[in-house]
Amino acid sequence: MKPAAREIITPRPKMSLTIPPDMAPVEFFNSPANLNNLAEENGLFRTPEDLLMYRKLIGHSVEFDTSIILDSSKRILDPLGRPVRRDQMSRTQKKVWNQMTRLLFEYMLENYPDPAQHLILGGEACLDATWPLNKPGVPSIRMIHNHFMVFPMQDLETAKYANPADPNLTDSGHHSLFLRHLSGVYHEFLEILDLQILSPISTKDSCLKLTGYPQGLPSWELKGGASSLKDQYFWYEYEQVLLGFLDFYSTFFSLVSTGEPQVPAQAHFPLQIREVLLGNGRFQRIARDLREQVIQEPQLANDIRWQPAYKQLLYRDDEGRLIVTISQNSVGNAITELLGIVVKRVEDEAAYAAAEPALVGRLLEARERFIEANLGEVIAAPSWPNGEFVPRTSLQM
Fold it and tell me: pTM, whole model, 2 decimals?
């Protein structure tokens, strides 16, 4: 069986919310109405720092699938003024964010201990952070997002091959920009990070044998495994990976935008930017070529996320190692596609209803860890009014 991306079919319930006739679907789903519904209908837990855990009703997996967002919508009314990346969060928010991430990942590791049986991952991303403002409705949510999910390996093994040209896998060409044209300097720049707990590992060694992904991205093994998640220094290093990526992204797209090689004002590693990036002829040439392409193709300029947008992934590989990797988040490929998994959601109320009680039960079980840690308050959504699943005849997103 050759390594190849897979397309997995995930059942979803029928959507009960009605999209107004004068609204595009993308506008509706990124509207405040939908955001309120995340908490009221599918919310599981909320902290005083505005961190919201909720059930992904239209999700990726019916085995385990939950998200945390920084829901600052009621505190910050300006959508463009909300934190959209981890480096924009307050120190307290980051501390709780890291703790919630650790607790959920530990839950997955303990309940799915065999890498041959289950793929587990947690993926953090800018959620619509820098989407062009003329795309209807997209800037309204603008919140940092962390997604935790589990896939049975048997489901992935029996899934059909995905189209290698799928725009989600290729990120409509943006993902290949880093890998095909800038891979060498991208890896070289991130080697500047002084990491002790995270150890560089080639993606050839850490990629999933089933899919062959991730392909060519800088990756790090978490030395010490799951026990290192309790080490605060790990989270410091996890942050350094993001800051290095943001410097690379900002420098490249600033060069594309202005044509002027300069160190971004908020750079974290200014000396390395000058020496490794701006001193690299290929880096400047690729930026110059993309700049010319943007001038000739206005639609391309509209598709680029000019401000840093990322996906940072923590996953377990075939050998049981915990791996960190990071990629740009340009046109909209999902977290799973970094690992070569394309999720096709299909409306199938019967299949979803059959899986829902066990799925919700696992989410409530995971929520107990937040309760025990005294991180905030539970949310009594209609499907779990008293902490137990209650089937409904009409599901709402």
Answer: 0.92
